[in-house]
Amino acid sequence: MTAARFSPFELLLLQSRDQADTAALLLLAWVLTQQGPVGESERAHLTALTGAFRHGHELAPVLEVAASQDLGAIQLAAEVLQKELHGETSRAFLRLAVTLATEEAEPTLANHHVLRFLADLLGVAPAEFAALYASQAGRPLREPGDPSRHAYWQRREKGARERRRKPPPGKGDEPQDETQEAIRKRQRDERAEARRQARAARAQARHEQHKAKEQARARQRAEREAERRHKQARREAERERQRAEREAARQRRQAHRERRRESHDERRQRSRPGGDGTHHAHARATAPDPRIRSALTVLGLEPGASRGEIRKAYRRLAQAHHPDRFHREGEAIVASASRRFQRIRKAYDFLMKVS
Prior knowledge:
By secondary structure, the chain is mostly helical. The chain contains 14 helices and no strands.
């Protein structure tokens, strides 16, 4: 896209180091041009008020756009400002605008409406703006005159006549000169305070933005960690389920082998000479209880294990499978370990009871 397709203000925005500052500068220049012709003193005043801005370009092209009343550029600047300025930074901008509009005299009719437009643009309620205006200008905010009414023009003509009747300054005006010097000093102090407030507001906004980014990054890290732990818990639960299935399958195989061995022993006893039913019944009576075999299997022991071996196996398995060892691995892992520990405990209690 060529530069010819952009308006002068769009080019300024594209080249700006800080688009919000460029937009604010144009709207402040717009306020200044509503007061009348912009001379060197007005330019210097605007430059002093916006000394903390970081746009990186000259004031002249911005003043040219403002003086031309380019409504497209003003609308674009308003959209940028509405998006970028919030909270105290928007109030600091309004204080600068009020200073420009009220420093020399009462705001013009156009500036009354411009100031109200800027306050509404930045979401500042009329009552709050009136308080801000009074604090910055040192006088209450008045309703703008209505040019459609006769009284509006009467007041203007009366003011013009009074200014024409005012005597020119003479030798006896030293106290008036002192008053003017005091006014200029107050205005300089107010401009310096407005610049300080603008810098502080922008620093606060940058701090809040940095803080919000840090909080967002912390939330993302916490979410990633929670997801990692959740996945790990699911994997552990799946591994525990597979271990339980393998253990159950092993126990079934062992029980099947025991049954086959018993059946084989019975057939062998019957095939021996003198292997009658009495002997067969005795063999069945002396065969190991299936519950004992199952309990021994849970503890990993062979039939005929002593009480000492049972206690030793129980201590080893209880230590390895106690639920407290898995409290950091998630609820599913703890629940699986609890079930396993209960089976070990029941097997131990049963064997100690019958042995």
